[in-house]
Design a protein that fits this description.
Blueprint: H1 2-11, H2 26-132, E1 140-150, E2 156-166, E3 173-185, E4 188-193, E5 202-207, E6 210-218, E7 224-234, E8 242-247
Length: 250
């Protein structure tokens, strides 16, 4: 009984509790400590490197953003300068074109004034001789200064003439002028009425002392004008009082 009671005290419910702990050698404990320490140091170093890299990357990104902003502003300024230069170039081109057109107009005006001055001198000389009686103007209608010349544009021609009535001048001369253009076209000689205003083939005149006629006409550029003929008719007469031909100066 004593033995049974002793066994129950050792192995029974009332027996004291026993903790079972594994036994680690000392070198394993130091190895574990070294490994844990190394991992902690590596983790700390990695975090430091990451934080430093992140800060450095942020610094680089700020510099990149600043450089991009500077280049963007520079590009915008260059675009504005380019636009200003383009507008200035357009203005200069327009002014140049206006100056060229003005010079062309001035040249044409000078030429027109020169032609008008020559014509006035001829008229003055004619009327001086006419008034002095030495101009050779006969009684009736006479034709003076019949001229034909090229115009400024291709196919354009200009003509001018001066009609004078001498003698007693009892009444105004009333009549008409009929023009005929002699030209070459497609290697053929052609005589055609002067292209005039409207469909009329004659030009009416009415004067007592004199009348100047200045007109222009237009033909096809391939037509080569050789001469211009004018015939002067008095109203009611079937035959021409005067006929004259003027050649185109070469």
């Amino acid at each position: 009984m004593v033995i049974i009671k002793s066994l129950k005290r050792k192995f029974g419910i009332s027996a004291p509790r026993v903790a079972v702990r594994p036994h680690f050698p000392w070198y394993l404990r130091w190895l574990l400590i070294v490994v844990v320490t190394t991992l902690a140091l590596a983790l700390g170093l990695s975090w430091g490197v990451y934080d430093t890299g992140r800060k450095f990357a942020n610094f680089e990104m700020n510099e990149v953003n600043q450089e991009l902003d500077r280049l963007s502003k520079l590009s915008l300024r260059l675009q504005q300068d380019n636009e200003a230069l383009r507008i200035g170039a357009i203005g200069l081109e327009r002014r140049s074109q206006m100056e060229i057109a003005a010079r062309g107009d001035l040249v044409r005006q000078v030429k027109s004034l020169g032609d008008e001055n020559t014509r006035l001198k001829e008229d003055l000389a004619f009327f001086q001789s006419f008034m002095s009686g030495s101009g050779g103007a006969s009684n009736g209608v006479s034709l003076y200064h019949f001229k034909l010349e090229r115009g400024q544009s291709p196919g354009e021609y200009r003509y001018s003439l001066l009609l004078v009535q001498g003698g007693q001048r009892i009444k105004d001369f009333q009549g008409s002028l009929e023009f005929t253009v002699n030209l070459r076209q497609n290697r053929e000689k052609v005589a055609m009425p002067l292209p005039g205003e409207g469909t009329a083939k004659t030009f009416n005149v009415s004067f007592k002392f004199y009348q100047r006629v200045e007109k222009s006409f237009q033909l096809r550029p391939d037509a080569v004008v050789e001469s211009l003929q004018v015939r002067v008719f008095e109203n009611g007469a079937a035959l021409a009082k005067l006929t004259k031909i003027v050649n185109l100066p070469s």
